[in-house]
Give the backbone structure.
Amino acid sequence: MTTEDDVRGRAATLDWPSVHARVLASFAKGWDTPDPYAWDGLMTENIELNQPLLQPGTTRQTWHEEAQRLVTLLPDIRGVVVGWAGHEDLLFIELRLSATLGGKYLEFRAVDKLWLTPNGTVLRRDSFFDSAPLIQTVLRRPSSWLPWWRSGLGPFMARRRFLDR
């Protein structure tokens, strides 16, 4: 029978820096050319997802749907890793994201907290960023209103209820 101490001992002997490097490379590659399926190799099937403006969920399919909404609104969105830190099964990644919305350049930072398996797949992702610049850009740029509505991101709850999503 495996004890909790055995599991901790095995986790401590893992080469976590190598796991972090592999995850970081895949994560960054996904943000080079974002697509709803770009991170499939990183995610467990039942991944837990929490992020501003997007529906939280517990499946890869939820991510596909929400990421499609994001790239529909911001088709030119790109992310660059600007920093990271990891300790065993936790990895924090800081991103600088940029896109065009309503003809206006938009840039913001996000931090993703990832819980990893020993083989380098993500069990849970919590993303943190200030959504105010994005919302303010939408509100100030009437040319972004229709794309925002069509993307399924806004207005978030009313849109979903209206469309039964």
Remarks:
- The mean pLDDT is 87.
- Strands lie at 43-50, 78-87, 90-101, 104-116, 122-128.
- The helical segments are 4-13, 16-32, 60-73, 132-140, 145-151, 156-163.
